[in-house]
Records
---
Amino acid sequence: MPPIQVQFRRFTSLNTTIRLRDGQISARLSDMLEGAPEKVLHAIAHILLAKLYKKEIDSRENLRYKRFASSTAVTREIERIRAARGNKRFVGPAGRYYHLEEVFDTLNSRFFGGLLGRPALTWSECLAKRSLGHYDAAHNTIVVSRVFDRPSSPRYAIEYLLYHEMLHLKHPVRMRGLRRSIHPPEFKAEEELFPQLKEALAFIRRL
Ligand SMILES: [Zn+2]
């Protein structure tokens, strides 16, 4: 059996592809399938391999996948993601002046002993001023507004913003009774450790 590599990618449909190249099978699935039940993933694997080797597809496996893909919950999720992602592409971490992965890695070793797993990092599509940055737990992605990607934006500003989002990675949202505690005291205490906190907040206020 050739080695198999499976990747979940950001697609706006349940797109799946498979190919055999240089003795290696690589399959690409929509990240919307990442949380699918094991039986459904098994059916997908069966269908893809049958297609690749031009074998007959077991009708039960086919039915199992079709049922899942056309279920209300799944079609609703596809619609939601399509609306959110549109046909826009994932902008990615490389900006014109700052590279988010480089900034993340620097902060990670400076403040977190390099222990935080790096999520997907991306600049926002537009020059958003309402949402300067946020951590999307569902897609494990930190989005940073493009307004920070210009020479007039000091490095400490983008560092502070990313630092804040990294603290969200470290301190997941907790329930305090019936309330969600987004910035609990230990979060705030750690935020105070950022050396240029005052300057960064002043810059953000001016924005
Ligand atoms: Zn926050």
---
Amino acid sequence: MNTKPNHKINKTPARLDFIQSATGLLLALFIWAHMLFESSILFGKEAMYMMTIFFEGYYFFGEKYPILITFLGGFISTVFIIHALVAMRKFPASYRQYRIFKTHMKSMKHTDTSTWFIQIVTGFVMFFLGSVHLYIVMSQPGDVGPYASSDRMVTEWMWPLYLFLLIAVVLHAGIGMYRLCLKWGWFEGKNAKKSRILLKKLQYGIIAFFMTLGLLSIATYMKIGFEHQAHAGERYHSVKAEQGAK
Ligand code: HEM
């Protein structure tokens, strides 16, 4: 009989924590880049069209391959699902646990405790709204562009979904990155207290920046969508942008 005590440490929680951080980092960087690319519409239809055909590989292959968007969407969806699965273990498991947490949050009035709650709520919202959006871009990868995207917003009534998704994702990514920095000690420097205050300011700045950018982008897509409503379904074409690759 083996009488030796089992000194093995269970590494699963640490591994899951690492997976959550790594997938979260990737998704936050992706979403910030996504918002910047999406905002090309602020520079006009031509700019957004060039961005679209760039992602369809036109400037590399001389042909448009919307299927590339499907692959990218598939990859992001996989990371998104893994992140959500791993994060689910942090959800309050019962109504009783939730009540206890709420009382705790009220009595502590500590922003880092409240932001944890925001992460849970926004994560839950994104799980539904983000999945709808990802499925649409993956199944209709050719329907991205200045007119196609604007028609989707207005004629296909996607703007309310985008609005709620934007609020959820910008808060979740901003708060998530701040928490990652604290957790892994990134940018801690010599004075941890001072850098924490700075990081918090940066967090608010980044959230304000991407929220404004996203709202302006949605408003611009909607303006184009209303103007184009009578011709919904027609696609934008630009000989000039396509000549750029020749
Ligand atoms: C590879 C994956 C993705 C692709 C190709 C993609 C593409 C797009 C496109 C083309 C639009 C413009 C509107 C339209 O055409 O419907 C858009 C808007 C938007 N997407 Fe995504 N998206 C992806 C993933 C995500 C994810 C994972 C989220 C958040 C969970 C997200 C959040 C948003 C939001 C909030 C908007 C509204 C526009 C804005 O505020 O800039 N997207 N996306």
---
Amino acid sequence: MDCCSHEGRTVGDARFEIKKVADGVHAAVAAPAYKVNSNTAIIESDDGVVIVDTHSKPSAARVIVERLSEITTKPVRYVVNTHFHWDHWHGNEVYPAVYPHAEIVTNQLTREAMVRKGLKRIQDHVRQVPREIAQLKADLAAARAPAERARLEADVRLAESYLAEVTTLRPALPTIAFEQTMKLYRRDREIHLLFLGRAHTEGDVFVYLPKEKVVITGDAVIGWTPFMGDGYPEDWVATVDRLAQLDFTQMIMGHGDVAGRDWLAMFRGYVHDMVDAVRAEVAAGATLEEVQQRVPERLAPVYEKPFSLYGHYRPWRAALRANIERTYAMVS
Ligand SMILES: [Zn+2]
């Protein structure tokens, strides 16, 4: 399909592969891109649709609305945000505009984080992305290899379209917030929204479908190296262990392809071993520089390959260095 038009109308440049996960449950898996988009879960019930996460910009959510017609004619009733990061809620405004009865749901911690930090970051992006674009253009001017030039040209286009959208964003905050758990009971389905402890953020929401044995993890579990800049590395494994106690076979993660419990074990292993290694180094009095040299070499044999599936968009070593820095600061 052509990237940006559908019946002559411009929808957006975000790309998704829609995969059936169970009867009435689909994952819209976002293609990795310079301005990242989260995945979306699409859960159909007798009276309407639940959507989980809305990407980094309204046009990406509009692509999902457009493609929903391939799946169902039912209206979207609930939009769940798994956490407060830009790439999971900036598209919120699209749903109440298209479906007047749609409610946006998250937990209290995440709603507060959106108000305290998320709104400010929108203004930060408006200020910072022009510098980013200037840097990309400088890199492009210096680039010689055709493949690199093509990638940088695409990145410039994505950065410019993101800037245009974030500048005119009308942030739609959640209209319903819960504390620990919220359950939606539908004739044909149960949908549990759960808080299991801190991990990627202070308020990660998991969406669990017990009958279908599917869990939607947000960014507490993803298909590449996690971002820990707002995270709690020392709490993360315990939260993942609580997740592992649920009876499920498939995970729709915040980023990356649909996965099973084998990937959960790999992901848990990475977080556990990284935190453990940094802790041991700190206990022995190592400087951050020493930790940055030694821990990657220790982890690479097991983790470098599986965490490098998504190529240059998420280089493992660069992400690992950031994870180590965050963990070092939290442990010290
Ligand atoms: Zn994300």
